Every structure is written in C-alpha cells, then in structure tokens.
C-alpha cells in the first residue's frame, strides 16, 4: 500500500542547483512544505491564466530582498499585483537615493547607537540621516501638482515609481527598487494600512501645510476586488502568496468575502494559497489563520485546499530559495500590466454589482 511519495535520500554533491536541492533534498517538515510551495508556484501558479497576488510584511526590503528577489519575479511576470506594508515601500527607497545600509549585530549596544544617530532594524544598521533625506525626497515628490488629489495607494506608488526610476538613473546606481520595477511593469502596489508607516506620517504632516494628497482607501478595497473578480470571471484563477501575515494578508484575502458577502456576487474563493510565516494560530498570532479556517470565510476555494500550503519558515530564508527555484523552473510570463487596466476592471465590477443589486 502506498502511503505517499517514497522518501529516497541521496548524498548531496558539489554543484547542486537550487532546483535540484529543493526537489530532491527538502524531504519533510517545513523543508517539505517549502518544496511543495516552490513546486506549486513554479508548476501551477505560473500558468498564463493565473493572476498572482503577493503580500509583503516584516522588514523585507531593508535586507535587500526587494531588489534581489521581488524585482526579478516582477520582471519575469511572476508577480501581477502586490499588497505591502508602507514600511517596505518606504525603506526600499533608501538605496534608490544612493544611501547605504549595513549588516551588523542584533546584539549591538542600542544606547551607543542612539548616541551616534544610528538606526537599527534587527541586524541592519544605517545613519539617521538616511531617514531624514528619504523623507525630504518623498515630500518633494508629493508636493508636485500630480499628487494634489485623493488617490488609491496603487496610484501613489505608481507615480512615485517614476521618481525613484529617475533618481536611480540620475545617480547611476545599479540598484532597482520594487517601486521602480513595479512602475515599469505596470504592477499595482497597494498598502492596506497607509497611515501606518513613514509614508503615511509624511502625508499627514504635509496635509497640515495645505497639501491635497489623500489616501482613497475605498478605491484600494474596490480595485483589489476588481483584480480578483476579473481573474475568475473569465475562466482564469487567482493565486495569493503571503510573506508574513498582518494587515496585508487579510487585505489580499478579503477580496473574496467582498465579492461574496458584501456585493452578493457568486464566487468560491482563491484557487491557490501559499503562506510563509513564523506565527501560530492557537495564540491568535497567525493573522487570517490557516487555509482551512479561511475557507469558512469564503477566502479560499474549498475544492482547492490541496493547493493551499502554510510553511513555517522565516521569509528572509524563503525568498531567495523560492525566487531562484522559480526562475530556474519556469519561463517568464507576459506582463499582465494590471495597473493600466484599473479603470476597465473597475467598470466591469461596478456593472456586475449593479446587476446584482437590481436582481435583489
């Protein structure tokens, strides 16, 4: 009787590729779950009819993983839209402006660091001036006429990406921020809690001086819902890949309850679900909970639970492995350029919602 896939261990040899390492040597426990996640991403989620949404929480971009991992996946067409904390967007700008961040010790003397105006993000260190100059750059951007209105966070980030792209070219850096890559590829980036970051703090301060930029959070909810609705309406599939948890996780998953519960539009849930987390559901710390629990909310299609994976591994470990595996395993996909289609997708969702209301 076959109970599953036979574990057939072989010695690891020099020159092993990431794909061969994952496929043949990540046997069980969270190594096994990481193997399953890599294979699901490369074999099923990368299909042309799948729309891939990714969430970013935790301090991922200060580590350098924005340009090292997220940017290559965007350019390969393997990320179609993003929900991120504002912090990841903000800290990704530092290197675009020519500033340096350094690897240090998580056990540094924080009193001494404070005395020398050094900021610490766990084992990442940088001068406080990096924050001050980044704030100044951001305020100069949003003082421009094109920002003097209410807009979704996707529009804010898209417009900002043009400025980071210009600055990267001007200083001659090889660094490419997530903002720049998303701008070039038409990948919308949403922030689920826009006031909860230095970007939100600067917008709030500028509002006191007459700046007209405002976050349109209702547009964020509706636009993200329209992306998922379009993916499913025309026979395609929706996939979510979640790094960490928190507000971005719930925001990307609530698109399905928004359709089903709030708008009364028939739907079954996301088709593919991968989460990398170090939280636990029994303490209330696994935000949005497990796939089976999310299924009860309509967030996950119950028929697709076998294609739902939770891997309890640090995102900073997963991202380089997953990116290398995907780029080695699957060809690049044509860019969906969902940012360019926002008006079209919203018109479709609005029309079908009105039809639902008319039939109520």
Structural notes for this entry:
By secondary structure, the protein is of the alpha/beta class. It has one domain: Deoxyhypusine synthase (Deoxyhypusine Synthase), CATH 3.40.910. It is built from 16 helices and 11 strands. A 6-stranded parallel sheet has the order 7-2-1-9-10-11, with helices on both faces. Strands 3-5-4 form a 3-stranded antiparallel sheet. The protein starts with 17 loop residues before the first helix and ends with a helix.
Beta-strand portion reads 5-15%
Counting DSSP H or I runs of 4 or more residues, the number of helices is 16
Overall CATH class: Alpha Beta
What is the strand tally?
A: 11
Largest sheet: 6 strands, parallel
Mean pLDDT: 93
CATH fold-level assignment: Deoxyhypusine Synthase
* Ends distance: 53 Å
Helix and strand layout, with pairings?
Blueprint: H1 18-25, H2 29-45, E1 50-56, H3 65-75, E2 81-84, H4 86-91, H5 93-96, E3 102-103, H6 110-115, E4 118-121, E5 124-127, H7 128-142, E6 150-151, H8 153-171, H9 178-185, E7 189-191, H10 198-207, E8 214-215, H11 217-233, E9 237-243, H12 246-253, H13 255-262, E10 272-276, H14 291-296, E11 308-311, H15 315-329, H16 342-358
Parallel strand pairs: 1-2, 1-9, 2-7, 6-8, 9-10, 10-11
Antiparallel strand pairs: 3-5, 4-5
Helix pairs in contact: 2-15, 3-9, 3-15, 7-10, 8-9, 11-13, 11-16
